[in-house]
Amino acid sequence: MNLTIDVIGIGAGSPAHLTLEAVAALGEVDAVFAMDKGAVKADLLAARRAILDAHAPGARLVTVPDPPRDRDPRDYRATVEDWHDRRARVLAEAIRAALPDGGRGAFLVWGDPSLYDSTLRILERIRALGVDFGTRVIPGITAVQALTAAHGVTLNRVGRPVLTTTGRRLGERPAGMDAVVMLDGGAAWLEHADPAEEILWGAYLGTGLEILRRGRVGEVGEEIAAEKARLRAGHGWIMDIYLLRGAG
Ligand SMILES: C[S@@+](CC[C@H](N)C(=O)[O-])C[C@H]1O[C@@H](n2cnc3c(N)ncnc32)[C@H](O)[C@@H]1O
């Protein structure tokens, strides 16, 4: 069939994050595949639709219902594996049905495809199901970059490492190491950060809802947690990220 699938990083929230390379790639695609995550994330699907209207008016948007997933499983890895498998199956069908011989499809990936995103892994699974295609990856601006730019800081302090981790695993951080934390469903800083550490927090970065907070965890931590809960309840969803910097 000679198919190509582009995996296009679209940046972390602002349409202005799109690179010229991403815009050029969008102009070449026949169909864009997206998982429909239901009404809660409808805002995110709308953001994708706006990008397509602006840069790929000729492309079909093929939305595929996202298979349900247990959000609090006993065996996290096995549950995610199974979920990716089910996603791969529905997407394989959609790709077969939507792309003509020699066609080019695309997945738009929030931020950059290399960072906490499973699109490239799922494409491997789709290939294993017998759908043959080449892949091209277009890098995008990550939420990490959106956060550091919004706060006007460098990610790493001079000569120091930075751990990239999730809220779930923040407690495993080596003592004293700076960390950038993503995918925090709650407020892990309250439990796992030192009160003297600085938190540089950002939510809905790059969007009209963008909000930033910065201060010592002991001084602003509770307030940010309450604000996060309020925002999530108000908008129905939240995406936030933060940098923790030790006192030393
Ligand atoms: C599944 S990861 C995807 C990361 C993405 N591939 C990237 O390069 O930024 C989703 C997490 O990224 C962070 N994130 C993505 N976009 C964001 C935004 N606009 N504002 C704040 N955090 C964001 C949040 O921590 C969210 O839980």
UniProtKB/TrEMBL annotation:
GO-annotated molecular function: precorrin-6A synthase (deacetylating) activity
Superkingdom of this protein's organism: Bacteria
NCBIfam families documented for this protein: CobF
Cross-referenced InterPro entries: 4pyrrol_Mease, 4pyrrol_Methylase_sf, 4pyrrole_Mease_sub1, 4pyrrole_Mease_sub2, CobF
Pathway: Cofactor biosynthesis; adenosylcobalamin biosynthesis
Pfam families xref list: TP_methylase
Protein name (record): Precorrin 6A synthase
Annotated GO biological process: cobalamin biosynthetic process; methylation
Domain Tetrapyrrole methylase per the UniProt entry, residue ranges: 7-220
UniProt KW S-adenosyl-L-methionine keyword: yes
Alphabetical keyword list: Cobalamin biosynthesis, Methyltransferase, S-adenosyl-L-methionine, Transferase
